[in-house]
Design goal:
Layout lengths: L1 E7 L4 E7 L5 E5 L5 H10 L3 E6 L5 H4 L2 H8 L3 E2 L6 H5 L1 H8 L18 E4 L2 E7 L8 E5 L4 E5 L2 E2 L2 E2 L9 H12 L7 E4 L5 E2 H7 L13
Parallel strand pairs: 3-4, 4-5, 9-12
Antiparallel strand pairs: 1-2, 2-3, 6-7, 7-8, 8-9, 10-11, 12-13
Bound molecules: zinc ion (2 copies).
The site of one zinc ion has 5 residues, from loops.
Length: about 220
């Protein structure tokens, strides 16, 4: 699997173009905006887009989903249904944050914890990780040991939980009980900023390290 990270929107959200290097079949994860830049990466890499995947309903991750889906007739998979209220809020959020006008959409498939998502020959486990938003999902590709985690976990930080229906203890639980057990070696692409590994965060992250939560041994 190859991943090309394309920072989009004034919030520099990491939109990911993921594709299989042999078949060139791929997907766009979290098309928050700046579709010209996303399409440029698609063309440069000769990717045949199959679908759009969404980690959560925030504007900077999902703002250009409707436009991209319509333009290329692509199905939308994700997030979990509990983020529907965020998706419905996209037009209002765009006005509020001074983004270009953005539309809401209806996913072709809402995702549940334990679901599988395929992109060409690649398979991803769907991990429901509430806390930043209630319907946030993470996409985990076991074959390449990579997770796309949206705004759940960052290098040295975690997602904010002060927004509507956010919950700090849910977020910590999602990270500690659903992400870290996947393995210290897992590389993750966060929604903003640099990539890291679960092992590094388990050692050093001030919010969710073993030391921070009192589980050091
Ligand atoms: Zn977010
Ligand atoms: Zn974000």
């Amino acid at each position: 699997m190859k991943i090309v990270v394309i920072p989009v929107t004034p919030f520099q959200q990491n939109c990911s173009l993921i594709f299989d290097e042999v078949s060139k079949i791929g997907a766009v994860v979290d098309p928050g905006g700046d579709l010209e830049r996303v399409m440029q990466a698609v063309e440069q890499n000769g990717v045949k887009l199959e679908k759009i995947l969404i980690t959560h309903g925030h504007l900077d991750h999902a703002g250009a989903t409707a436009d991209l889906a319509e333009a290329l007739d692509l199905p939308i998979e994700g997030p979990h249904r509990d983020d529907q209220f965020w998706i419905e809020r996209i037009p209002r959020s765009a006005e509020q944050y001074g983004f270009p006008p953005a539309r809401m959409f209806t996913p072709d498939r809402w995702l549940e914890h334990g679901d599988k998502v395929t992109v060409g020959p690649m398979e991803f486990d769907v991990i429901h990780c509430p806390g930043h938003t209630p319907g946030h999902v993470v996409f985990f590709n076991a074959a390449s040991r990579v997770a796309i985690v949206g705004d759940v976990l960052f290098r040295s930080s975690i997602g904010r939980s002060d927004l509507p229906r956010g919950n700090h203890s849910d977020l910590v639980r999602s990270i500690r009980q659903r992400l870290f057990p996947l393995g210290d070696d897992i590389t993750f692409v966060p929604g903003h900023g640099q990539t890291s590994t679960f092992g590094w965060e388990r050692k050093t992250n001030p919010f969710v390290s073993d030391l921070a939560v009192g589980e050091a041994d």
